[in-house]
Amino acid sequence: MSPNLRGIGLLILSLVAGTYAVGAQHASVETLLLKDYRPRSIYRVPVTPITQAKFPVIDMHAHDYTKTDQDLADWVRTMDELRIQKTVILSQAHGKEFDAVVARYRKYPGRFSVWCGFDYTGYDQPGFGPAAVAELERCFRAGAEGVGEMGDKGKGMHFTKPAAWGMHFDDPRMDSLLDKCAELGLPVSIHVADPMWMYESMDPYNDGLMNAYQWRLDNQTNILSHAQLLGTLESAVKKHPRTIFVACHLANCCYDLSKLGVLLDKYPNLYADISARYAETAPIPRAVRKFFDQYQDRLVYGTDMGRNKKMYLTTFRILETEDEHFYDWDLFTYHWPLHGLGLPDDVLRKIYSGNARKILPMPAPR
User: Pairing relation of β-strands 299-300 and 188-192?
Assistant: First the structure.
């Protein structure tokens, strides 16, 4: 083959390959799955560097994320770097399991508040109550500073072992336990329902579909609705005015915060943590900032997303800055961009730790 023909042949192959590559690129976009959609913002807008919280922090919603002494030491080091004064460990445990958790976190006095769970053994048998109350008292003597995270997504209390299927938060069988919490001064952390997108149909109109599908509840049978679960929360809080309750995740009312506002207006013994709902609130920063300002005395900081340094910094960025249109795909799987709330300093101080100190009496920070 002559050099000219060889050159023409190479040119044709190059054009064909280029055309195929362009076609393949378009094909991949046309068949892109929603779960694989990971947009990156190209807006040239201010980015605020955050290296630690602006004020001392009490994390009111974490779990036992450590397996070794080194894990725990690393966590405390991260807390020191980021100005996290104290972390609440919602162990959900009782018996020997709770005792083991307390023993591990006591290695760092004052840095952790360990909460226990209720023991529902025999909840479906006559005479349930006294043994569960006795175990609660034992956990209190062993070091429990609260109870949680209790949880009901519609089929009953099931965040602890054993589960109590069919028994909801306002069930009369819960009364002796919740009364005892008031007597012992133990606040109760309660998770009812889930974000509303999980209850919506999994269809093209569900704008939270990317995350909702993983946690969907629309296909469950014999389950209380979102509104019914909020009703169980209100009923329990109303029946037990001497017990302090902390509704996890803004009571899962991010889609309509006024529903939580009504409860906060009615019941002074109710607080709410903001944990693990940053992705649901940061897309509507003006409405959320207004809500946080109105209820600044009743909201507490929380994470519920592990102990990773970057995770904490993202929450601080959302609360403290006015940064716009950014993503954190390591934490959140909605397609919505995040926006900073730019909370005022006085509101930040209360949410970061001031309100938590009303729930967890402790010396003021130095």
Answer: unpaired
Q: Which pTM was predicted?
A: 0.90
CB 129 within 8 A of CB 176: yes
∠ Cα 211 308 105 (to 5°):
115
362 vs 341: CA distance, rounded Å? 28
Quick: pLDDT tens for 198-223: 999 999 999 999 999 999 999 999 99
CA–CA distances in Å: residue 337 to residues 32, 301, 308, 332, 365: 19, 21, 21, 10, 35
Report pLDDT digits (tens) over 117-170: 999 999 999 999 999 999 999 999 999 999 999 999 999 999 999 999 999 999
Q: Is the backbone of residue 305 left (phi > 0), alpha (psi -120 to 50) or beta?
A: alpha
CA distance linking residue 172 with residue 175, whole number of Å? 5
* DSSP assignments along 176-214, one per residue: HHHHHHHHHT--EEEEES--GGGTS-SSTT-TTHHHHGG
